[in-house]
Amino acid sequence: MDNLQGNILVVDDDPEICRLLADVLADEGHAVATSTNGKDAIKHLSQNIELVITDLQLKEMQGLDLMRQMKQIRPDVSVIIITAFGSMSSAVEAMKLGAYDYIPKPLKMDELALVVQKALRESALRREVAQLRKEIGRSYRFENMIGKSKAMQAIFDLIRRVSSSATNILITGDSGTGKELVARAIHYNSPRRDKPFIPVNCAAIPETLLESELFGLVIGAFTDAKQDKRGLFEEAGEGTILLDEISELPLSLQAKLLRVIQEKEVRRVGSAKICKVDVRVVAASNLDLSEAVKQKCFRQDLFYRLDVIHIHVPPLCERREDIMPLAYHFLNKYKDETQKSIKGFSEDVSSLFLSYNWPGNVRELENAVERGIIMARGEEVIPEDLPDTLNSGFAQSALLHEAIDRQSSLEELERAYIARILEQTGGAKTRAAQILGIDRKTLYRKLEHDREKSLPPEPFGASAD
Ligand SMILES: Nc1ncnc2c1ncn2[C@@H]1O[C@H](COP(=O)(O)OP(=O)(O)OP(=O)(O)O)[C@@H](O)[C@H]1O
Ligand SMILES: [Mg+2]
Predict the structure, then answer these.
(1) CATH dotted code for 392-452
(2) CA-to-CA distance for 421 and 302, rounded, in angstroms?
(3) Ligand 2 center from residue 197 Cα (angstroms)
């Protein structure tokens, strides 16, 4: 790990010791100021000091009083105490007041260098956390969304501008980028905020039920319909409906949805009666809908109706400035649940986070942080605490090595690889299919094939946990 260089204040009433320490620390690359008394030390504190090394036996002001005053003025500054033999009890007292560590006299310079490094690292981390907290509390936050990048700031701005109108909105972006969160932010910023917000995943409801789910039905429409049912459009009332994975809507229903949007009325399945609705429609998709239009899987007229305002949420790897603020946001969210006193992420974790390409986007980051916190033993999350997929180069090559060792067939390797990618996307099949370069139907067919043959999903290369 690189040596940190800091601004250090040395306080000792013996000018010889001040000079000696200043020389040694300056040799290590630190910027050093010295004071031979408490009052002068307090004056120096207003400067850029990150670390104070002080003797406890000062002439006019006792070291402990100095500590108290310093902690009041600059609670973020780290203090290392130098203790003479026999003054153990005041060292303990100083630690209680928040000193970072103490070093006994006679001073051993290598020990000093080590403690200084640790203290600087800790105070850097503390400053980073404080800074990120401030940022999260300020403009990088919108509703429950974090976003420091220009792209996210532009999205926040757009949400503010379009929320008050009733226009339809189309949100696109890869799986896990935060589309549903954007839809919620739109709803809760709109005059409809006290009315329902109803998310519907069009891909999760069987095609035969989708129409009655959306628009409702009356007795007799189906043999098993025992009572009339309100559809989700009626359910949403004067609120907002989120039609998620809209590309999965069958063409026949696309025509009906278009009518609902244009006429602002729904007709329950099996009924001739028409019911007026005033629902704001927000649609989301992780596919490029204009492409689907070209391929004639999506109606062009419906596309234009939905695409009045288009919000595209870019993948996390295209807005890396958001990674650490998001990571700290999730750290705060999950740390309380575990009652651990985790302060942050080790430097290695930060650089891993910043260099990884996050195919599962924010959802994957959230899962990684949650797991990191559960696994962490110390005050920092370290790389070993994270899911294997993150140490990915390593994980992928382990998969290949194992395949070679076992002389696996291509089919076995394919199965293991698909399972690994699905794990990485948090089970999102559309995204997995994109990464694998096959279409979703092919992916389903392959998974179905394995299920029929009752093959285990991941024959080897499983993660260690
Ligand atoms: N900017 C953000 N700030 C805070 N949390 C976020 C942000 N973006 C996403 N998340 C979190 O990441 C997770 C995934 O987000 P969400 O469900 O909105 O994604 P999605 O794009 O709808 O995914 P899918 O396409 O798979 O439905 C959620 O837990 C959400 O709270
Ligand atoms: Mg979603």
Answers:
(1) 1.10.10
(2) 33
(3) 14
